[in-house]
Amino acid sequence: MEMIKVEDLAFEYIRRNEEGDVESINRAIDGVSLDVKKGDFIAIIGANGSGKSTLAKHINAILYPSEGTVWVNGMNTLKEENLWEIRRSAGMVFQNPDNQIIATVVEEDVGFGPENLGVPTDEIWERVEKSLKAVGMLEYRNQSPNKLSGGQKQRVAIAGIMAMKPECIVLDEPTAMLDPDGRKEVISTVRLLNQHEKITVLLITHHMDEVINADKVFVMEHGKIVMQGSPREIFSRIPEIKKYRLDVPQVTELAYELRNAGVDIPEGILSADELVQALENLGA
Amino acid sequence: MQIVFDHVDYLYSGGTSFEKHALRDISFKIEKGEFIGLIGHTGSGKSTLIQHMNGLIKATNGKIYYNGEDIYDKNYNMSQLRSKVGLVFQYPEHQLFETTVYKDVYFGPKNLGLDKLEADLRTYEALKMVGIGEELLDASPFELSGGQKRRVAIAGILAMRPEVLVLDEPTAGLDPRGRDEILDQIAMLHKESKITIILVTHSMEDVANYVDRILVMNNGSLAMDQETRSVFSRYKELEEIHLAAPQVTYVMNTLKEKGFPVNTDVTTVTEAKNEITRVLKII
């Protein structure tokens, strides 16, 4: 069974005037279908306003389809009786770490989710410990969150979701407000959870270098999926990707420029090591 | 010399047990018309530093001079300084509040006490500078895209005709094209109107592509103050203080380690391409 199945999804933001008449309709998602297998690491990229966040909000039933259907772990998000179970199994991390942390002590923040689910106290503490360990923040458990860096706060937010034992985490630009170190921390934490805890990951980002390790990349524009494939396939199509207001990692761009200048290296190079290797192979 | 920081200290909660040195003995000079990058990890003091530049925060010790005048002198006109040094905060679009794009930008010059004609003129001029077309003047700021909103917010500052423009992470949260559009616009402003630009950013690629000189902050101190190329050649030190060099700098250094006779003094894609093709022709 797929972790997430989206079929012919459309979502319309409807604006009404003071009399309640429809003033305008914005079709933010316009016919999206996709399947995400359990354990996959999926990245979604696209311009501002392309519908990425709107799509993400369907996956834990913050928004409901105007047309089409979304299943999370086999549960239809339109059925009200599924709501709690969907939100438990698909947790969401947002852009601004300061908007998601509510408690005054790190461990209490992480325990908030399972407490709300009615988990027995002993088990809450077990889960808090395990989750903080999984994101590498156990030593901060008794600290105040406001003393933490942005990357650390995001990891606490992720731990808070892990404590609800989800099968899937949706991250909506989790690194947009972080410095380079914070970005690395968050992305490597997410990869670790994906590899070791088998958590399905859906990462939305504007940083192309965070996408290179995904199993699959979806590119969105005007509410539609316009490209999909492995990072290597996507980043080999540079002119196309730039058309969608996106970019490629700097190393990929350099490799592309070198190929255009007649240097015989493969398409779709994603990392500095790969590029150096390809240039070394030239002489061989 | 336009801006001079002379041994500036700033202490949070001085005299209490929470006392913290947010800035420690900061000294530097900025010439009129420079394009400067300010980098440093979260909490390194970048935001505190820029808020000193237009007097929003007062130094605990040390002096700051603007165009040769001591801004802490009791006769100094602080409100004039604030119109000369424009600060664009992070996510400035959160500060848009008027009902139309035009009115929002007009608010600044109107508050300077200018007559209507002059304020109108500056509003048009500022919106043109950031590439917002006349068809959007009557739109609600909230109908615009993320990148457009941000440009309107920047226009609000430009309408005050600042001599120095300080931008705190102007590209955070924008898509790659939106990022390039904003930065190109700022670079053009710098070139055409000779405004001094100070760009605070977490993107090493952006600083490498645009600025001439970099100030590096670490734990409240000024760790480096050099031209862009020299700062990135010290990439190992940058890593120690939780920063990095652009990806291409790493490519060049690895190539060098592997025995390619490349010059590692490279910070942009074009420079890297030229250097690698030059070396490939030799070997």
Could you describe the 3D structure shown?
The complex is a heterodimer of chains A (284) and B (283). Chain A is an alpha/beta fold and 284 residues long. Helices cover 37% and strands 25% of the residues of chain A. In chain A, the strands form two sheets. Chain A has a six-stranded mixed β-sheet, with helices on both faces. A four-stranded antiparallel β-sheet of chain A has the order 2-1-4-5. In chain A, a hairpin with a 2-residue loop joins strand 4 and strand 5. Chain B is α/β, with parallel strands linked by helices. In chain B, a hairpin with a 2-residue loop joins strand 4 and strand 5. The N and C termini of chain B lie far apart (47 Å). The longest helix of chain B has 18 residues. Chain B has eleven helices and ten strands. At the A-B interface, helix 6, helix 9 and helix 10 of A face helix 6, helix 10 and helix 11 of B.
